[in-house]
Structures are given as C-alpha cells and as structure tokens.
From TrEMBL, chain A:
The protein's name: Molybdopterin-synthase adenylyltransferase MoeB
Lineage of source species: Archaea, Methanobacteriati, Methanobacteriota, Stenosarchaea group, Halobacteria
Molecular function GO terms recorded: nucleotidyltransferase activity
Native source species: Natronoglomus mannanivorans
Family matches, as PANTHER family: ADENYLYLTRANSFERASE AND SULFURTRANSFERASE MOCS3, UBIQUITIN-ACTIVATING ENZYME E1
UniProt entry tagged with the keyword Disulfide bond: no
From TrEMBL, chain B:
Residue spans crossing the bilayer: none
PANTHER family: SULFUR CARRIER PROTEIN CYSO, SULFUR CARRIER PROTEIN SLR0821-RELATED
Entry-linked NCBIfam families: moaD_arch, SAMP1
Region (Disordered): 72-92
Entry-linked Gene3D superfamilies: 3.10.20.30
Protein name per the record: MoaD/ThiS family protein
Length: 282, 92
C-alpha cells in the first residue's frame, strides 16, 4: 500500500475538496485510491475522463478502439484538432497526463467484447493485478451497453450508465451491491439492430453528452466518496430542448434475465451481443 | 376525460409529435395506447411486435411510474393522466 497522506502539492490541488466536510482529506484519499474504467472516449467519455482526472481518481482506465475524426470534435472535448487520426485512447490519456500527474492513466486501444471484458475490468490484463471499482458506460452501441451491464451485474461491480439521442439523455447508477435492479430490468433486451439510428445518422447536440457525462462523473465521485444519494433505483431522463428532467423509479424486475428470480443469463458467454443481446440459441 | 402522451427519443419522430392529447382515451392505459397508435402506423411498427404486443424494451409510464409496477396495460386511467412511452437509447 502506498503512503496515502496528501502531500503539500496535493493539499493545494485538492484544497476546494479538502475544505468541505463532505469530502475532507479522507474523501480525497478515497478518490486517489479509487479506480475507474471508462468505456468509450467519445461524447460522454470526454467529460467523465476530464472531471475524474481533475478530481484525482487514482487509476483511470480508458477503453476505445476508434481514432479521432474531425466530426467528433463538436462534442468530444477531450480531443483537439491536432488529434485527428490518432487513437482516441492516446489522445485522452495525454489530456489526463497533462492535467493531473496524480492519475495513473491506462489506455486500452481495443473493443470491449465478451472475450476482453474480464481482462479489462477484472484486472487480469498485462501488468495490472487489480481490477476497477467502477465501470462507466460511455459507449455508443447497445452491444457494449448490454455486455457492460451483464458483466458488472454478474460480477458485482458498480456501473454508471449514460446514453444519449439527439437532444435527450438517460442516466442512472447501478451499485450492483445487492440483488439489482440492473439495466435489463428496464430494457430486458436490445432493440433489433437498425431499429434505433445512431448519432451519425440523426445528429446530436454537441453539449448534450457534456451534461449527461458530467452527471455520470458526479455519480462516480459520490460513489467513491461514499457520500450523497446516488441515482440508484432511479433513471434520470434529460431533455435539452425543454431543459427538463424526469425521474423514473427503477425496480428490480423478477423476470429480469440477469438479476431476476430465475435468470436465463448466468454468464456473459450465454449471450449473443451482436443482435438483440438475448441468450444465444447455440 | 383527456390524457396526455409524452413520447421520448425516436418515438417522437415516429409519432410526428412529442406530445399528444387524447380526448377520448378509453378506460385503461392499454386503451390509450391503442388510441395513440391507431392513426400513427410508423409509431405502431416501432413499439409493437408482429403479434401486436408491446416490445419488451418499450416502457410505459403513468404519471411518472412504470405501469408494470401496477396493473400493466390494464392500469385504469383518470382524467388528466400523463402517460409516456420511452425506449432505450444508445448514443454516447
């Protein structure tokens, strides 16, 4: 275990945290001891990475297999014009290193699949010998979203869910410390591929993922601090055009295929994630 | 009796509107859904399975609460109810 007393530079850097009773030096130490895996370094991932790095989250993993495109820059604010063509994880990791040397940033230029997720989240990947406390789903497709949900629910790892569509966002938190609920309690299976158009087809208001990603970062910080009320059992729906928020209660569904009374899905390897994320027939 | 439907994400585009007021919605949430979908075939295609049942990932709210936490589509209506349909979204 490293010496977790805050040094003089850290006391200055985090002074606006440390001065508050709700955080204090103990809370700041929890953030510095915390580890978070951000899945996706795009619109949602950008503010999540920026604020978690600024907050001093000790180990920040970033997974993405894309390169930065100029059309990303209207909303993916962790990347700059000079980063076009670079892997997103490299660009994002450089941002984190430049912002806060306290953060051990790990860039994983790969896709999260049922073959890679255990290595990525569980911590059997390369030099790392320990896993992550929290996974942030900042991905852009249902396959990754259902995989993150199923893995984290089955493994008892906290998951922050955020997703966007044009002017609207959905955000919630699954601590996964009990019997659910999980994402499949709300949406048992994914829409058939092609049913819901993506950002490239429909467009997206650039600032929208900023708002939703900042809520995800807020939730992660609170989770690591052990303070405040999480969006646990609540799905927050945000409409940028009406500037309105609605909260829907989310309860464990006894028929949920992952956390229900008689779950069909006992392993991520039971599921075909490329279609509607249901149990494979083979 | 009137009830209002609020439609989220791509469902609003399929319906052609984000808010729909029904003056004669019927007795239950299911009746109000049928009335909503009757002259909106694109929305009906989006939210219903081929057998006419509601797709599992489409959620129905009555006054902010998932109707599955009461009597589902059999849940009774009251004047002024706010109903909502919301799907999962995947963008990031």
């Amino acid at each position: 275990m490293t010496d977790l007393r805050l040094d003089a530079t850290q006391l200055e850097r985090y002074s606006r945290h440390v001065i508050m009773d709700e955080v204090g030096p103990e809370g700041q130490r929890r953030l510095l001891e915390g580890s978070v895996l951000v899945v996706g370094a795009g619109g949602l991932g950008s503010p999540v990475i920026q604020y978690l790095a600024a907050a001093g989250v000790g180990r920040l993993g970033i997974v993405d297999d894309d390169v930065v495109e100029r059309s990303n820059l209207q909303r993916q604010i962790v990347h700059g014009d000079d980063d076009v063509g670079r892997p997103k994880v490299e660009s994002a990791a450089d941002y984190v290193r430049a912002l806060n040397p306290d953060v051990d940033v790990r860039a994983h230029e790969t896709r999260v699949t049922s073959e890679t997720i255990d290595d990525l989240v569980g911590g059997t990947d390369g030099e790392r010998t320990d896993g992550y406390d929290v996974v942030v789903d900042a991905s852009d497709n249902f396959a990754t979203r259902y995989l993150c949900n199923d893995y984290c629910t089955l493994s008892g790892i906290a998951l922050s869910h955020g997703a966007i569509y044009r002017f609207e966002g959905q955000v919630t938190t699954f601590p996964n410390d009990g019997d659910g609920p999980c994402y499949r309690c709300i949406f048992p299976e994914a829409p058939e591929p092609g049913t819901v158009p993506d950002c490239a087809t429909t467009g997206v208001l650039g600032v929208l993922p900023g708002t939703v990603g900042c809520i995800q970062a807020t939730e992660v910080v609170k989770y690591l601090l052990g303070a405040g009320e999480l969006l646990e059992g609540r799905l927050l729906m945000y409409d940028a055009m009406g500037l309105s928020f609605e909260t829907v209660d989310v309860r464990r569904n006894p028929d949920c295929p992952v956390c229900g009374d008689d779950p069909e899905i006992e392993s991520i390897h039971d599921v075909g994630y490329e279609g509607s994320c249901t149990v494979s027939s083979d | 009796m009137t009830v209002d439907w609020k439609l989220f994400a791509d469902l609003a585009e399929h319906a052609g509107d984000r808010h729909v007021t029904l003056d004669d919605p019927g007795e239950t949430v299911g009746d109000a859904l049928e009335t909503l979908l009757a002259d909106r075939p694109a929305l009906a295609d989006r939210v219903l399975e081929e057998d006419g049942t509601l797709r599992s990932q489409i959620n129905v709210l009555r006054n902010g609460t998932d109707v599955e936490q009461s009597a589902g589509l059999e849940t009774g209506l009251e004047d002024g109810d706010e109903l909502a349909l919301f799907p999962p979204v995947s963008g990031g």
